[in-house]
Amino acid sequence: MTNRVSYTLESTLESVNQAEQKASEVAARAGLAEDEQYQVAMAVREAAVNAVLHGNAYDPGKRFMVAYETTRDALVITITDQGKGLDPDSLPDPLAPENLMKGSGRGIFLIRAFMDEVKIRNTNPGTEVTLIKHTGRNAANAKEEEAQ
Amino acid sequence: MSMKASNRQVDGVTVVDMSGRITLGEGSVVLRDSIRDLVGKGQKKILLNLGDVTYIDSSGIGELVSAFTAVRREGGELKLLNLTKKVHDLLQITKLYTVFDIKDDEAAAIQSFTK
Fold first, then answer.
1. Local structure of B91: helix, strand or coil
2. In the predicted model, what is the mean pLDDT of chain A?
């Protein structure tokens, strides 16, 4: 069984907070543990910040979309903006010594650290970021497969 | 919960008690303004008490790094006190745990500043 709900939000920090809050609620309903709820909420926050700040650049004429989908074995959240697009391969490594003391550039890194799968797609124009967290008993199997 | 910061002086060290969320927007601005204000007044021994900080995002981490760099550039010291587990884990993941001087006892932290 699949449940899906989506929202179209203004390019504001208030919307970022709303997307984060909703992620926390959806993660709790999906049965994730408290620390996983926090991870999902933070990943959504970081992706939403990227959409508003770097994608739409706070343009009041642009919106970003957040879709929350709960499947039998995963929570899938998709954040889409209307910005100029993002090349994930061009992002500097925040752990590299020359970047360690920089004041920004850790958002995508944290998203990848907190989610089981992350897909970034250029939608010309715009960027679509898909965040996947495995839920339930299948989560353990997926992690084992990934480790092999 | 919005972020709050209040200062107190202990043996020549400014302890900044912070509470709430350090995130993009208000939280990061409060931290940035607090540090800028202290450095501007010549107070360069700063202990950031993060015990009541419930949440930090990547912008907040960046602001901590910028604060650390700004104070050091002026010849001062900035140390962190009372990290919650979430903040501790974030600094571990981002490899910043060894960059910051992190303390869990205020009296010992005060004593550790250069006299």
1. helix
2. 91
Q: Do B93 and A45 touch (CB under 8 A)?
A: no
What does the buried/exposed string (b/e) look like for B26-44 if buried means 16 or more CB atoms within 10 Å of the residue's CB? ebbebbeebbeebbeeebb
The model's pTM: 0.91
As a residue count, chain A comes to 148
Boundaries of every domain in chain A: 3-147
CATH of domain B4-108: 3.30.750.24
The structure tokens listed for A21 are 């809050």
Bridge partner residues of A75 (DSSP): A70, A133
Band (B64; pLDDT cuts 50, 70, 90): very high
Locate the domains of chain B by residue range: 4-108
Point out the residue among B23, B90, B95 whose CB comes nearest to the CB of A100.
B95
Supply the CATH classification number for the domain A3-147. Answer: 3.30.565.10
- Tell me, what's the ipTM? 0.91
**Size of the A and B interface in Cβ pairs below 8 Å:** 48
Rounded Cα distance between A100 and A31, Å, is 35
Predicted local confidence at residue A89, as pLDDT = 86
pLDDT value at residue B27: 85
Tens of pLDDT, residues A67-92: 999 999 999 999 999 999 988 888 99
- Of A1-10, A135-144, B33-42, give the lowest mean pLDDT range: A135-144
Nearest to A106 among B23, B94, B99 (CB): B94
- Collect all residues with Cβ–Cβ distance below 8 Å to A29 and sequence separation of at least 6: A70
